[in-house]
C-alpha cells in the first residue's frame, strides 16, 4: 500500500491527513510535508491518522522530528484519530508522554487557543 498525504488549514492550524502506510521507503514524504509547513511559518500542526494502516519506526522518527521542529518555533504537533493498535504502540514506546493526542479535529484545533 502506498502513502497519500494531504494538507488543509483551519484557524491558523495546518492539518495533515495520512492515508495508507508510512514505511522507511516513503517516510520522507511526511517529513517533507512537515518541513514545508514549518518553512511557511505554520508551526501549529495536527496530524490526522484516521487513514493510517501501518507506521514503521521510521514514521515514528518523523513524528519526533516534527515535534522538535514545531516546538523549537513555539508551536506544537498534535495527533488525532489514533487507532487502538497505534495507541498501544504509543503507550509501549512512551510516546504518550511527548505527544498530545485528541479524539477530534475540533478538540485539537481548540487546544492551540489555550
What does this 3D model show about the protein?
It is built from 4 helices and 5 strands. The mean pLDDT is 94. The protein has helices at residues 27-39, 57-72, 84-93, 105-111; strands at 3-10, 13-22, 44-55, 76-80, 100-102. The chain starts with a strand and ends with a helix. The protein has one domain: Transcription Regulator spoIIAA (2-Layer Sandwich), CATH 3.30.750.24. The chain is of the alpha/beta class and 114 residues long. The protein is globular and about 35 Å long.
Comma- or semicolon-separated keywords:
Transcription Regulator spoIIAA, alpha/beta, 114 residues
- Main CATH class: Alpha Beta
Tally of domains: 1
Largest sheet: 5 strands, mixed
Helix content: 40-55%
Instruction: Note the beta-strand portion.
Output: 25-35%
Short description:
With 114 residues, the protein is α/β, with parallel strands linked by helices.
Chain-wise SSE layout:
Layout: E1 3-10, E2 13-22, H1 27-39, E3 44-55, H2 57-72, E4 76-80, H3 84-93, E5 100-102, H4 105-111
Parallel strand pairs: 2-3, 3-4, 4-5
Antiparallel strand pairs: 1-2
Amino acid at each position: 500500500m502506498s502513502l497519500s498525504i494531504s494538507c488543509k488549514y483551519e484557524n491558523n492550524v495546518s492539518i495533515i491527513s495520512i492515508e495508507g502506510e508510512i514505511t522507511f521507503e516513503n517516510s520522507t514524504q511526511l517529513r517533507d510535508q512537515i518541513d514545508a509547513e514549518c518553512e511557511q511559518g505554520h508551526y501549529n500542526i495536527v496530524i490526522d491518522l484516521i487513514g493510517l494502516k501501518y507506521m514503521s519506526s521510521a514514521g515514528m522518527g518523523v513524528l519526533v522530528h516534527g515535534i522538535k521542529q514545531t516546538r523549537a518555533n513555539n508551536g506544537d504537533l498534535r495527533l488525532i484519530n489514533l487507532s487502538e493498535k497505534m495507541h498501544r504502540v504509543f503507550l509501549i514506546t512512551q510516546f504518550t508522554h511527548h505527544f498530545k493526542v485528541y479524539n477530534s479535529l475540533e478538540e485539537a484545533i481548540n487546544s492551540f487557543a489555550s
